[in-house]
Amino acid sequence: MAKRKTIWITGASSGLGWEIALEAGKKGYRTVLLARNTKKLYELQKLIEELGGEAHVYSFDVSKPEMITKVTKKIMTEVGQIDVLINNAGFGVFERVESTNIKNVEEMFAVNVIGLIALTKQILPYLLEQNSGHIINIASQAGKLSTPKSSVYAATKHAVLGFTNGLRLELHDQKIHISAVNPGPIKTAFFERADQEGTYVKNVEKWMLDAQEVAKATIRLIEKPKRELNLPRWMNVGTTLYQLMPGIIERVGGKRFNQK
């Protein structure tokens, strides 16, 4: 019988991370649930166990490198396995640059970028030793096409994509897969902080992705790895055109970009 894969998921206490963990449980994977809100994680653990799955809960603040080191060692001692790391933890605050509080900037980079890199660095020796594994980084279409009021958030996701692509090349000769998931806006609690006025959600609600569907597509990457998963496809066409002819796209789509 094949060994059951163990999946670590950051930001598992809500939103997309919660749905990814549930989907992983349904598929029979063993999950390691990581987030600050352990109360929600224990609720999730119970749901996964009711589905016949196995879940382990660890209090985890991705913005604290010293905690990343300590908790990673603890998990490897107690659970003893990692096959897939899903770097999902992240948040955004949508503001014009002149109104942005620099503490929000620092926090977004600490969580979305530095924490992601720090955790990846911690688990890489284990993956390299076993010469297998998969790192899935949840980036964003915003990392390909920035829009007004998302300048800083887009910068963090652009950094995630740059890191993901570089890491993939570094591990080219290893049996370790590196994937980026680039969703458009997802209907989750993410926007309670990102869009406190509710303007953006109101303008794009009909196009927002369903978190369960994004989670299912993300988990499918484990069995069929690929370089990038872009959702929805039509939005990725737009970001691709932007990379080819940014000036034209900015002129044509200028008003539509101001949805926030």
UniProtKB/TrEMBL annotation:
Family listed: Belongs to the short-chain dehydrogenases/reductases (SDR) family.
Entry annotated with the keyword Oxidoreductase: yes
Protein name (Swiss-Prot/TrEMBL): SDR family NAD(P)-dependent oxidoreductase
Organism: Halalkalibacter alkalisediminis
Keywords assigned: Oxidoreductase
InterPro entries on file: NAD(P)-bd_dom_sf, Sc_DH/Rdtase_CS, SDR_fam
Pfam families: adh_short
GO MF term list: oxidoreductase activity
Enzyme class: oxidoreductase
Signal peptide coordinates: none
Highest taxon, organism lineage: Bacteria
